[in-house]
Amino acid sequence: MATLQDIQFHYDTGNDLFTLFLDHEHKMYSCAVWQDCNTLEAAQAKKLDRIATFAKVKPGDRVLDVGCGWGGMLLYLLDKFKVKKPTGLTLSQEQFNFIKSLDIAEIDIKICSWSDFHESKAFDAIVSIGAFEHFASLDNKANETHIDVYRDFFECCRNLSRKGSSLGLQTIVLNRVPSNLRELRDAKYLLEKVFPGSSLPTIEEIKVSMSNLYRVEKMLTIGQDYAKTLSEWKTRLCNNENIIVERYGRELYEHYLMYFDSARRNFED
Q1: Strands 63-66 and 108-111
Q2: How far apart are CA 42 and CA 200, in angstroms?
Q3: For the whole prediction, is pTM greater than 0.90?
């Protein structure tokens, strides 16, 4: 499992950096849904609505967001679904500070892993967007304990939820191993230089780990949407090149260019 240090290595670079390439309204750092959308802001809102719908969120519900980022889903749930004091979990100090700075009493934000989180009152729904990839490390895969980690997550969600509640989950999945040197280099760069402590699950691994805990009611593949999302992030990054280089240095700017290009190629293939 990715450690606190692994998460903060990437996500605590600086909130100002992420605001320069993420969507302006929700600051979502995961794949947008571009169907019938022309802007990143609209596509991210569509994604949030879809995940909340998958989780069957209703007005007045208590909702938990595992890996809540900068609080985009928490705010969306309050505004669009009229939920009751949504709870967000993050391991990023910067994300925690950002959400706290919003000073919204209805949001409950905690620096806490799902594995360490305890709540006496059951949630009506749980969502998790782009966090599942961090749950099992390459070491877990090498030791063949990754399925146990995934199952622990689904068991945790069940234990935190009322009977019959749903989970809305979005994650990147591995559908094949790298087939050439370029793909191998891209994968190595992403796992070592961008997201240390992380690894990608397969669809089969997710299904096995959730057996007898959750039933798959709907599953969608949106890989090409991620390629478009990454392209939009890169465009916005390039538009802010001077600001980023001045604040963070040329090396970090070039790192993000390499990161976005490597990730985009994986989704386009």
Answers
A1: unpaired
A2: 27
A3: yes
